[in-house]
């Protein structure tokens, strides 16, 4: 059984749409989110911590909103910015920009304690470098016999382009009201429509295809 590690039951319901019946359940475990400039290392670190906690295959995700005209801000800091500035302020800041294009990105991190020998791209290189740079604590794990190889994690990325607009719609969560894709904000879409185009849906689709052979 795969554990989707999240405090948000909605994410598990979304994952269930992509995976065989009864193959995934929620693990309510709040792993420590490291501060990093990219989503991959955050998801990878979370997957390792969650795997050590669960001792079973785990999937974690990390997502963020990247505004082009702000050089990708808030990106990995999206949660913090949502909690502090709020999405109205993010819209106000973006309203002064010439370029209001933005994207949601999601990175899923999968870990089951085994390597990915059959896969051409087993471990995110940047994450491996980041883990090595972080020192011995990060290097612990089942991934290597010499203690320098972190627990293997497989990453899957999803992306959806759009632009920042004045808030519209009352569905969804987070930045949904100010993110427009194809003429509708995410908060105006019903759940099926959002899932069909969302960053998390795209990443889950890639994961489900790969996981079927795992
Ligand atoms: P998390 O990685 O799912 O915790 O998300 C990080 C931040 O991005 C939080 O502020 C979320 O509200 C926001 N976020 C992630 N996915 C979405 C989405 O699908 N719609 C709106 N906001 C999102």
Automatic annotation (TrEMBL):
Any one GO cellular component localisation term in the record: cytoplasm
Molecular function terms from GO: nucleoside triphosphate diphosphatase activity
InterPro entries reported for this sequence: ITPase-like_fam, RdgB/HAM1
The reply to whether Hydrolase figures as a keyword in the UniProt entry is yes
Name the UniProt key words of this record, in alphabetical order.
Hydrolase
Ranges where the record places region Disordered: 118-150
Biological process terms from the Gene Ontology for this record are:
nucleoside triphosphate catabolic process
One Pfam family in the UniProt entry: Ham1p_like
**Recorded superkingdom:** Archaea
- What family does this belong to? Belongs to the HAM1 NTPase family.
Which protein, by its recorded name, is this? Ham1 family protein
Q: Give the organism's phylogenetic lineage.
A: Archaea, Methanobacteriati, Methanobacteriota, Stenosarchaea group, Halobacteria
């Amino acid at each position: 059984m795969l554990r989707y590690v999240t405090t948000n039951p909605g994410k598990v319901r979304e994952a269930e749409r992509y995976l065989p019946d009864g193959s995934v359940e929620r693990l309510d475990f709040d792993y420590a989110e490291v501060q990093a400039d990219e989503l991959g290392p955050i998801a990878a670190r979370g997957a390792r911590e969650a795997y050590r906690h669960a001792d079973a295959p785990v999937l974690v995700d990390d997502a963020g909103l990247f505004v082009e005209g702000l050089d990708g801000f808030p990106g990995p800091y999206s949660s913090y910015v949502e909690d502090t500035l709020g999405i109205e302020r993010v819209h106000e800041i973006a309203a002064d920009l010439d370029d209001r294009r933005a994207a949601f990105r999601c990175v899923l991190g999968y870990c089951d304690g085994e390597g990915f020998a059959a896969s051409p791209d087993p471990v995110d290189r940047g994450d491996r470098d980041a883990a090595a740079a972080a020192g011995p604590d990060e290097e612990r794990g089942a991934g290597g016999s010499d203690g320098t190889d972190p627990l293997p994690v497989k990453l899957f990325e999803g992306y959806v382009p759009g632009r920042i607009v004045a808030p519209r719609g009352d569905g969804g969560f987070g930045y949904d009201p100010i993110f427009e894709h194809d003429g509708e904000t995410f908060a105006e879409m019903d759940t099926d429509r959002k899932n069909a185009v969302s960053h998390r849906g795209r990443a889950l689709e890639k994961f489900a295809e790969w996981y079927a052979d795992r």
